Amino acid sequence: MWPPKDWTDLKPSMVWLLVVSSLIVVSALDYATGVALSFSLFYLLPVMLAGRWLGYRIGVAVALLCASVWYGVELLSHTVIEPWISLWNGLVRLCFFLLFNHMQSLILEALVKEQQLARTDGLTGAINNRQFYALLEDELARHHRFDQTLSLGYLDVDDFKAVNELGGHNLGDRLLKEIVVTSQKTLRRVDTIARLGGDEFAVILPQTDKAAALKALTNLQSALNKRLKQFPGSASVSIGAVSCHKPELPVGALIKYADELMYRVKRSGKNGLLCEHIEPPNTVIEPRP
Ligand SMILES: Nc1nc2c(ncn2[C@@H]2O[C@H](COP(=O)(O)OP(=O)(O)OP(=O)(O)O)[C@@H](O)[C@H]2O)c(=O)[nH]1
């Protein structure tokens, strides 16, 4: 389908077609009009297309091709009296195309890095709050559409402040990273851990009912508590979890429910796990006291 809905998804065959056809059109027009009209800028189009969608190396190859075609057009149309002048100009253009390709790749690389940073938590590498909300919203819609059950866990480190006080902020940071690494190792690949802020995390367990969520989160809790023993103090994790079939709840309500359960665990002595199944029509979200 043309034009594509998402330009980042252009197929390589389509890009090659654009690269070749744009170079043919530009060089034909350049040849036909001679020195009267300048087409210099348009020779950049194939270089830009190739570098953007086919990668740096192919961008270099297309830069070479464009400079050669331009040089050939100049020779064929006899617009240059001295061949060495044409050759010199060709080399200058080649350097310009290569520089353009290089700059474009640097900009694209920086853009990808920026997009990655915008989605992840800088300390732990887990997805951040904003990305978590977006992901959960998509998952809720998907589970509703396919009549499936989703579970959501809300984790908070118990007595984390003491780790910072006893071992320093760096050790506290290490503990937070450990939470993410251990969770990623313990959970399934389809599950996602997010850092919501401070020492609070959430895990999305797709296609998981209450029984399976209880099992997965119990495993996770014991793996985490084992790892937390290496830190000073008596850090552990409290988890609140909800499972919901064919969810119709707004994202915020589901998170609030899991958060409330986690606080119930905290109030009843910490280092525990509470999981509930909720049915959307009967869902009453109790405000946190
Ligand atoms: N090292 C480190 N500490 C952080 C970071 N973000 C927040 N904190 C600290 O995390 C602590 C969170 O405190 P709380 O969750 O209220 O306290 P707690 O000791 O875990 O108490 P309970 O949750 O009631 O068990 C605060 O002392 C914050 O300063 C971080 O990125 N790195």
Oligomeric state as shown: single chain
Count of DSSP strands:
5
The CATH architecture classification of the largest domain is 2-Layer Sandwich
CATH homologous superfamily name of the largest domain?
Reverse transcriptase/Diguanylate cyclase domain
- The helix/strand order is HHHHHEHHEEHEHE
Tell me about the biggest sheet? 5 strands, mixed
Q: Ligands bound here?
A: guanosine-5'-triphosphate
InterPro entries: Diguanylate_Cyclase, GGDEF_dom, Nucleotide_cyclase, Rev_trsase/Diguanyl_cyclase
Enzyme class: transferase
Catalytic activity: 2 GTP = 3',3'-c-di-GMP + 2 diphosphate
Keywords: Membrane, Transmembrane, Transmembrane helix
Provide a concise account of the structure shown.
The chain is α+β, with helices and mostly antiparallel strands.
